[in-house]
Amino acid sequence: MAHSQHTIPTLTVCGQCGAGKSSLINALVHADVQAVGVTPTTRAPKAYGARTDSGIPVHLLDTPGIGESGHEEYATSLSSLVPHTDMLIWVVGFDNRALEQDVQLLREIRHIAYDKPLLILGNAVDRVSRHFNPDAFDVTCGSSPEEAIVRNWLAYLNATFAFAAPSSVLACAAGECCDDTARQYNLKAVSRCIEEMLPEAMRLRWLEEEKTNSDRKAKAERMILAATATAGTIGLLPLPVADVPLIITTQVTLILSLCSLYGRTFSADTARSLALAALSAIAGPMVFHSLSKCIPAFGSVVGASVASACTYAVGTVTLTMLNRDEDFDLNTFKKAVRDVFHDYRQGHK
Ligand SMILES: Nc1nc2c(ncn2[C@@H]2O[C@H](COP(=O)(O)OP(=O)(O)O)[C@@H](O)[C@H]2O)c(=O)[nH]1
Ligand SMILES: [Mg+2]
What we know:
The protein is an alpha/beta fold and about 350 residues long. It has 11 helices and 6 strands. It has a 6-stranded mixed sheet, sandwiched between helices.
């Protein structure tokens, strides 16, 4: 529920087979989600979730690439993807100058892609030197022969793609795997550039959603702390067995209020079964005995610190699941509550 599906921009990654499209996606996703290699590996378009430098969620759509399928086939596939795309990322592998097919394809789809921002990435610039050092490499101002070579190549890319009016042409290196930091170059700049090129409306919508999400989260956290304090007070009650039903009621109210804050409808019965499961996972069978009034107990059954930690855990786990838009599976809920409960107790010793 953090971000509704339709607000996440789709970025279609195109270019020749072997240019490094899949590698770039792996680097931006920070995981080797797509197979890469010297033989054609990307068979069909596939999307991956990533976040830009400031955390804007995007979908990166990998495509097979020019040369992997026939030209006609790739053109048809791209034509069907472009209408659902918010930005085109065109990847060229270092130091490819044979770009006729790229140009032809871009011309073919430009009539449907004219309103989409276009980012040209000159990838794998680490191949310019065996001793490439990404930290020392400065493609803009550096004066070494390698820096000049990459700069010239970028100028060539600029001139070649000028007809398509790209929003930006950048040098980068995705590396050979997602954490190949010895070769990766300029990926932060790529991420920031993507952000800047996103349609204004999408960026604003994301900022609005972020604001709503963080306001809502702050409110939810205040509700959890208030319920935690209430449960602690109930745990102090010197009444025999009276505490458990009161603590459960506090937790049920908390779960229902959090759900309603996040627009989820929840029955009181479901909330009650979650609260009971949580308390039984922590306080054990004692709770059920005291609920069914089977055992005459003296004083508080649960105790103030257990009551507050358990309520804090119930609220925190509920909030995490709401933020992730997850379903409330009873066993997962119990386990997560137990973990948060123990962390909370450790922190309040
Ligand atoms: N040195 C280096 N190799 C790269 C880079 N990007 C990709 N490669 C390699 O180039 C080959 C093709 O990459 P791949 O991502 O499969 O290309 P795709 O066909 O465009 O998806 C793989 O062996 C990658 O490891 C890079 O930035 N630097
Ligand atoms: Mg690929």
